[in-house]
Amino acid sequence: MLILPNIRFGLEIEAVSGPANCPLGVRGTDYGGAIYEYRTRPVTLKEWVENRELLRELFSALIIDPDGDPPTGLHVHVEVPQEARGKQFFARLARLWAALEDDLQKAKPVSFIREKYAKSWSNSHSEAVANAVQKSEYGCLDRYRTLNLASYPEFGTVEFRLWNGTNDFDEVEEIVSFCLAVVWVAAAGCGKKTAQSPVDKERELAVRAGRKILEVIRKGNN
Q: Is the pLDDT reported for residue 221 higher than 70?
């Protein structure tokens, strides 16, 4: 049985300036030292909740600029659950993301300058993903997509790159909750015949699950 609280995740938040320390992680640099990058280690929901106030303080102190050059983004890595590491998971995830991406981009458009670092899943990229799934070879895929599967061979994660950098901690938790929900929905359905599960229902389930996870985080009850 797939247990949501056991799924680990990590964040990379880029900033123009901010504190020297990063709760649950480290502060590094990106773009040749032009901006800071705060990276948390892989954590569970329980660890996140236990450090919420420290994390809130960090985000409130960040100066971000998604329209700058270089731009600041928010990336969420979610570990692929051990029990779901196979072709079916990636096929399900790709199908679900294709159903979600357009609405997500309309709700929170990627800043113009960040578009080359978080490109949409074009038809050609979707075809490349389908081929990668068949061969179980993901490292050759373009990593600069709204959802990056190329991180899987090295880190065992999928990376959500869609969102602009933000210092709004409430928004960060909404994004984290949604990313966890997407992976959970894709993983929880493994072992079933994907074609018999309408993707629209899975899309709705991901949205509802994201809201529920956010509720759990804010109540500290996990």
A: no
